[in-house]
Amino acid sequence: MIYKRQRKFFNEAYKTGEHGWPAERPTKSVVRFLKEIKKEKPKGKILDIGCGEGRHTIFFAENGYNAYGFDMELLAIRQAKKFTKVKGIKKNIHFFIGNILSLPFSKNIFDIAIDYGCLHHIKKSDLKIYIENVSMVLKEGSFFVLSVFSTKFKHYDHFFTKKDIRQLFKKAFNVLKVEEEKSGLHVFYHCLMQVKTDR
After folding, report:
1. 141, 108 in Cβ contact below 8 A?
2. Within a domain: residue 126?
3. Out of 9-13, 78-82, 113-117, least confident range
4. Is position 111 within any domain?
5. Of 149, 162, 195, 199, which residue has the fewest beta carbons closer than 10 angstroms?
6. Residue 106's domain spans which residues?
7. Does residue 54 form part of some domain?
């Protein structure tokens, strides 16, 4: 399912370029978590959920991973491909139009997944599908990097607490770290998880 309100918002944001988040550089939390992930997964396939203009997909490709990024917004994917060309990346990076609620992948094919700012746009009724799909495409022992709005960000209608995060993901993931960070007007929880071997 494509969410009409969200799609309209992001279409306008990418059209004007006035979206309020950095388009090209990776966030500090993702850079920090990658250093830890590399100790166990120095290479492999990574899935960037709701990749936007591809800053994290590109970052992982630059670090030697086979990177796949998808977004529901065509303008974002076009921009991501443009940034990829500008940076001279010619292999191990793939962008496509997609939806986390209906993934075109088989089971157990990714070593890492990242979601920077997608989950808090998912309806509560679709959270189960979201978690099942993320878990499905990841191998046992794989890593999941998640950033979502904290309850301290009062300018939005969908927030998460640390307890919410642990409760939502406890069946399939071990939550290794949950860090809170303020970024401009936003307050995020940055989470590092690992897929359970007995899920």
Report:
1. no
2. yes
3. 9-13
4. yes
5. 199
6. 4-17+27-186
7. yes
Tell me how far apart the alpha carbons of residues 130 and 133 are, in angstroms, rounded to a whole number.
5
Tell me: pLDDT of 179 over 70: yes
Contacts of 105 (CB under 8 A, 6+ apart): 47, 136, 137
Beta bridge partners of 70: 49, 96
Triad 22, 178, 55: Cα angle to 5°: 20
Exposure class string for 64-92: b at 16+ Cβ within 10 A, else e = ebbbbbbbbbebbbebbbebbeeeebeeb
The answer to whether residue 191 is domain-embedded is: no
Q: Give me the mean pLDDT over the 184-194 stretch.
A: 84
What dihedral do alpha carbons 130, 160, 96, 192 form, nearest 10°?
A: -90
- The model's pTM is 0.85
Q: Which amino acid is at 89?
A: I
The total number of structural domains in the chain stands at 1
Whichever domain contains 108, its CATH number is 3.40.50.150
| pLDDT at residue number 188 | 83
For 84-111, what is each residue's pLDDT tens digit? 999 999 899 999 999 999 999 999 999 9
Q: Which two tokens stand for residue 58?
A: 């590109």
